[in-house]
Amino acid sequence: MNGKIRNEHIDKLFRAVLELRSAEECYMFFEDICTVSELNAMAQRLEVAQMLESGSTYSEISESTGASAATISRVNRCLHYGADGYAVILKRMAEKYGEK
User: Is the pTM of this model over 0.70?
Assistant: First the structure.
């Protein structure tokens, strides 16, 4: 785990997220805690990660998601050199929902 982001406030935030029990509760919480732009940016990064894992090219990803080359590159760097957060969630989503 990256020590740069770990602190008591982020720990509390993550505990709060883990208490959410449904997609509807997620919508309610994240609508209150994030701006629409922040939510869209996180959703876009997840989509970019999924497309990179599927072998899509940067141009295909940019066209499909509207992500910039810088965003795609950052997500790609996280996929290869990050904390494996994308890998964990993409694997679980593929197993549970058949998303690849």
Answer: yes
